[in-house]
């Protein structure tokens, strides 16, 4: 067994959410975060694509990561967009 890389699209509640503060909150809440990139959506709103690496074989770990990210203040939603073995 190896590791699984998950890409989660994190959508802020509004364009007024500070992405740098959101990145810091994500790193604090989920230490397994490897990388984050802003993706412009439109009308001043940008989503964050967050890369997380978790051990393969942990049942429900990807859904748990999604729920943890969605629970952060300022986040409207978090959705897994990609999952691959590393």
Automatic annotation (TrEMBL):
Single Gene Ontology MF annotation: translation elongation factor activity
Family matches, as InterPro entries:
eEF-1beta-like_sf, EF1B_bsu/dsu_GNE, Transl_elong_EF1B/ribsomal_bS6, Transl_elong_EF1B_B_arc
The Translation elongation factor EF1B beta/delta subunit guanine nucleotide exchange domain, residue ranges: 3-86
**SUPFAM superfamilies in alphabetical order:** eEF-1beta-like
Coiled-coil zones: none
Keyword terms: Elongation factor, Protein biosynthesis
| Its biological purpose | Promotes the exchange of GDP for GTP in EF-1-alpha/GDP, thus allowing the regeneration of EF-1-alpha/GTP that could then be used to form the ternary complex EF-1-alpha/GTP/AAtRNA.
Q: Hey, which family's this protein in?
A: Belongs to the EF-1-beta/EF-1-delta family.
Q: Which HAMAP family match?
A: EF1_beta
Q: Which PANTHER family match?
A: ELONGATION FACTOR 1-BETA (PTHR39647:SF1)
Q: What's the name of the protein?
A: Elongation factor 1-beta
Name of the gene this protein is made from: ef1b
């Amino acid at each position: 067994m190896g590791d699984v890389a998950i890409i989660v699209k994190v959508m802020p509640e509004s364009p007024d959410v500070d992405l740098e503060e959101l990145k810091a909150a994500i790193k604090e809440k989920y230490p397994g975060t490897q990388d984050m990139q802003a993706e412009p959506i439109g009308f001043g709103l940008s989503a964050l694509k967050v890369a997380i690496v978790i051990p393969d074989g942990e049942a429900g770990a990807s859904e748990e990561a999604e729920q943890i990210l969605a629970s952060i203040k300022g986040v409207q939603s978090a959705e897994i967009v990609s999952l691959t073995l590393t």
